[in-house]
Specification:
The protein has six helices and six strands, in the order βββαβααβααβα. The protein is globular. The longest helix is centred in the middle third of the chain and has 14 residues, at 59-72. The chain folds into two domains: 7-72; 89-169, Winged helix-like DNA-binding domain superfamily/Winged helix DNA-binding domain (Arc Repressor Mutant, subunit A). By secondary structure, the chain is of the alpha/beta class. α4 packs across α5 (122-130). The strands form two sheets. Strands 3-2-1-4 form a four-stranded mixed β-sheet, sandwiched between helices.
């Protein structure tokens, strides 16, 4: 299927519905449906694709659902989905650093800034982390404060806590962080 127009579909996960968009370049967006920044992220996808994503199926979206299902069942630790990480050079460097955080591990904003030879840029790393449009797959949930405490997460701290516990334990967990029956495993 050849299309530069983005196709969009809902993906079901134990943590709730996610909205995903892709085209022939790869996955453009995979975000929780209730994330406050989702409308802004969709506008960015429109700018990248020169148009609004339309409802439809795409092989990249099907692969995304399959790999997320495997991740949530504890059968997958890394993703093979082609990603479109269009952003500023600094953002793309941060997102590339996120992709290098091993499954089950965490790092801090300060550590990422140091790895990028940008000491003192922890806040900028945090902003780029928050601009990540591909939740779970580009594992921004693995970034915590330097003191080991949880920091914010676009999908909510309950989801971040759940994802980190899931990766540490490698098992299925029940998610009760939302008042949404679709979020239960």
């Amino acid at each position: 299927m050849q299309t530069m127009t983005a196709l969009r579909m809902e993906l079901q996960t134990p943590l709730g519905t996610m909205i995903a968009a892709a085209n022939d370049r790869g996955l453009l967006l995979c975000e929780f449906h209730d994330r406050p920044m989702l409308p802004t992220q969709l506008q960015r996808i429109e700018a990248i694709c020169k148009g609004s994503p339309v409802e439809g199926r795409h092989e990249v979206l099907d692969q995304t659902q399959r790999e997320l299902d495997e991740y949530f069942r504890g059968e997958r630790q890394g993703f093979t989905i082609p990603l479109v990480l269009d952003g500023s050079p600094f953002q793309t460097a941060v997102w590339a650093a996120l992709l290098r955080i091993p499954f089950g591990a965490t790092t801090s904003y300060d550590s990422i800034a140091m790895r990028l030879d940008r000491p003192g840029a922890a806040r900028a790393v945090g902003r780029a982390n928050g601009d990540n449009r591909i939740a779970i797959i580009v594992p921004c949930h693995r970034v915590i404060n330097a003191d080991g405490t949880l920091s914010g997460y676009g999908g909510g701290k309950d989801r971040k806590r759940w994802l980190l516990a899931h990766e540490r334990r490698g098992e299925q967990l029940t998610f009760a962080g939302l008042n949404d029956d679709s979020a239960r495993m």
